[in-house]
Amino acid sequence: MLVQREEQLDLLRDTFRNCDRQRRGHVSLVTGAVGSGKTSVLESFGDWAATAGGRVLSAAASRAEQELHLGVLGQLLQGARLAPETGVRVERLLRDAPPAPGHDGPDGPVGADRISAPVLHGLFSTLLDLAEAGPLVLTVDDVHHADPASLHCLLYVARRLRHTPIMVVLAEARTLRPPHPHFRAELFSQPHFTRISLPPLTVEAITRLVDDGVEPAARETAERCLRMTGGNPLLTRALIEERPRAEAGEEPPSDPTLGDVFDQAVLGCLYRHEPGVRRVAQAMAVLDRPGPADLLGHLLDVVPESVSPMVRVLRTTGLLDEDRLRHPRIRRSILADMSVDERRELHQRAAEVLHEHGVEPYAVAEHLVAAGWAEAGWTVPVLHDAAAQALAVGRPDVAAGCLRLVGRADVDDEQRVATTAMVVRARWQINPLTVSGQLDQLVGAARAGGWPAGAALSTVPYLLWQGRVEEADEAIAGCGGDDEQAHAATASRRRAMHLLLGLSHPDHLTAVREAAGAPRASLLAGGSSPVQALSLLGAALTPTGDHDPVAGAEQVLHRHHGEDGMLPLLTAPLLALLWAGRADRVAAWSAALLDRPAVRHAPLWRAVLRALRAEAALRLGDLTVAEQQARAALDDLPPAAWGVALTGPLATLVACATESGRHAEAERWLAQSLPAGAFRTPLGLHYLAARARHHLALGRAHAATADLRRCGELMRAWGVDVAGLVPWRLELARVQLAVGNKAHATQLLQEQLRVPHGVDDRTRGRTLRLLAGTTAPDHRRKLLSEAVNLLQSCGDRLELVRALGDTGQTLQRAGDSAQARLLVRRAYQLAQDCGASVLAQRLVRREPGGVPAGPPAETPEPEDGLSEAERRVAALAAQGHTNRQISSKLFITVSTVEQHLTRVYRKLDVKRRSDLPARLVAFAEPLGEEIQPAAS
């Protein structure tokens, strides 16, 4: 189907009709970029003209047959199905028509394209005979490739069309330099000549091509096609042909993967142009940046003025947008067509040219790496600078490529050590398993050189990751010196490594403070960005009330979350938020950071962020997200690469499996071997707590007690006894309650509430819920009510389920079966939403005498169309409750309340809140009375 070519076809048809009525000929030249649809227009018009009473003769010129004398004219006449005698005469004319002798003219030799007058007259007479029965249409595609003799004949015909019903339709592509200037000049001067241009396709035209009656997003697809093809019909049709068809009812993918058809369309556009145009396109593909004419000329070693016309041709074809290739897929198609040697040669030349033009090292190094070339003296400093820049912007993969090339160059020992340090830093972010050898070399070189500060401090994070704490301590101590005399940056970096050592392995925290020779408050005070971030983590692990780690962490995250190279720095404030009891903020921040572009290139930090998000989701009661993120973290980074941090994601997975009742799966996670020193880290405490919960779930109270007591001993010995890390007293109280030791459990729970500066809302809510089970019934409801409020405010839905279930059980025992049933119903639904189906089933089976033994039966939808949840929200809104009050009463978010009300307004056809009471008279008051006591 031809689209956006109706106007051009109508013009050709009108010309044909005039030719038929007035017996007067005409010449039309259809012009457009390569791939603009000229051939389709000629074919479509030719088919129409044949049905309208015309006789159509067609020919297609080509670059390969430009030297074939009268080749195009021969094609036209061979398709005429002439009478035998006429055919023999025409064949003789074509065969025996030698070129006329030429002579020198003002523009060079002429006459080689001339044909003798008798031959011209004979051929024209044949065409006149063919036009006797009706208009004769001659179509010639790609006339710019036609042989000169055929063009001479066409001009002969064009001069005699005033009283001849012959219509000549030529198609010509825009080329670097208009071919056959004499032919064009005379053709354009004819009075019966029309030029018809084919513009690029518009969004509306492409929409007609992609709208197959199934996809509602046809215009969006068309807009993507236009951005990618510039409206070139050839490219557009190839793109649409490869577009995956969505299944019925499914949305089509927004960025389809393209294949060979589109590649061939791109190359088809290029190979139909002059070789110089193709060479410019290849240079722009290699550069992959805006290429001004002087830069391209320098790269291709041609005069810059000759490049500008080539760029204009590429732009009209749709391959270019301003001064660069329109889409990365076009670039990949062009590069794939080049040989390896061609690409390397151009990349090397590009590196040299860009370096001479003073382009930043990052861009120059990209071409050096692609060419695999570092032989010039200037390349090593450029590669070093580019690697440092790549690491600063979160591209360790690019840095590793630059440094791999430096490793082949001849450098001195100092440069080699610096390069090794950067290699470790880059490759560690991709996979820590790949740097063990280089790390040992770096440690050996630093030790042999007397622990110079730069080399020594660079080893500390990686040694700590691998659990080599004593070596890290040695490295920090070895580059000690007097901080007052040391360089300020080195002193700040050494202080940050001291903090990292103490906070990652708290058994060194006291020694770190003493080594710093500073009181605790100044040690945890802000300084440089790394020191400030680590200080916030220290304030969360050892809270005193002097520093607010939550506010500080939020400030650091707001300041640096948009900087791709700051992912290592942001781990500390995220952990500070987690251990300060703000899992909700960790979930939000980690999700935002996972969307950062740099995360795609740093598997280690992607894995760490996912592990943090998983633990946050677990603390918010979302078992589904917690397990999915923890599994993804272990997919990003294999267990052996995690070092001592492996206990983090493993602890989350063990906890998720235990909560879901999949105890065999939890056992498999626990069977995973752990690195030495794993329990010297705070994350090791998470693992101990998760394992204790698993032991308790299987009735192994003694093993659970042993893990939790070890947890408590370590935390007190380290001075990090904060509930946000592990509320070991609370967990131990659960074990004591399970074995019937209520007195010891009560003691532990009360002690948990008295921990100074170490009890967050979540821990307090969980503690009050357990404590309620040890108190008299009259005091139990008050504790449970406070627990419900705290757990709802902190967002822990799983613990909220337990608190609601306990409240429902308490109400059931007090004889209030209706309220108990309502609370259990809500708790059941919330548990299902959390992915805790085992807990949900346990809730509905706990009180067989009053609470239903299964989920509430679904009631048929009423005539007003409101669901049960929408009706409940509407009832409270009709009574005048605010959205936040409704959220609190029904244990749902404010956003959910707003969504319910939007649907209520639409279904009941009301415009404002005040209209609700009149529509809800039948059930608003009873529902309000039923809901209110549940929140008391």
UniProtKB/TrEMBL annotation:
SUPFAM superfamilies: C-terminal effector domain of the bipartite response regulators (SSF46894), P-loop containing nucleoside triphosphate hydrolases (SSF52540). It comes from the Bacteria. One of its GO terms (biological process) is regulation of DNA-templated transcription. CDD domains: LuxR_C_like (cd06170). Keywords: ATP-binding, Nucleotide-binding. One of its GO terms (cellular component) is cytoplasm. Transmembrane segments: none annotated. Residues 847-868 are annotated as: Disordered. Gene3D superfamilies: Winged helix-like DNA-binding domain superfamily/Winged helix DNA-binding domain. Residues 859-924 form the HTH luxR-type domain. One of its GO terms (molecular function) is DNA binding. It holds the Pfam family AAA_16. This is Regulatory protein, luxR family. It comes from Micromonospora sediminicola.
